[in-house]
Amino acid sequence: NNFVKTMLRINREKGQCKVVNDQFGNPTNAADLAHHVLKLLDTEEYGIYHGTGKGVCSWYEFTKKIVEFAGIESEVLPCTTEEYPTPAKRPAYSALDNFMFRNTVEDEFREWDKALESFFYNKGEIQ
Asked: What is the pTM of this model?
């Protein structure tokens, strides 16, 4: 399971969902991350690397794009973290920077929304 699959399932089943609009991060395409890790393995470089899609969005914005690219008729509604309590506390801003990739093997991560669109274009709809 992952966030994309969960949002697809919920929006198909219910035709509506609420998603927090006050928590921000960098959605990351797994293929982009794998590409960068493979590039790094061909070097002598080491250290702690953050590998994320470019750009920052809220979970609400991310969900809106998932529903749009999947072509699902569903209403995605914004809410606050206070309105959507979860057992795990989430930071309001968890965006990371690809500093180490930029300074070693280059940062070729795509914009998060372009990578998401490419995912749907290349794989079709996730089941």
From this structure: 0.92
In whole angstroms, give the CA distance from residue 89 to residue 73.
31
DSSP secondary structure, the chain, as one string: --HHHHHHHHHHHHSEEEEESS-EE----HHHHHHHHHHHHTSS--S------BS-EEHHHHHHHHHHHHT---EEEEE-TTTS--SS---SB-----HHHHTTT---PPBHHHHHHHHHHHH-S--
18 by Cβ neighbours in 10 Å (0-12 / 13-18 / 19+) ranks as: middle
The pLDDT tens digits for 72-91 are 999 999 999 999 888 889 99
Distance CA 1, CA 44 (A): 34
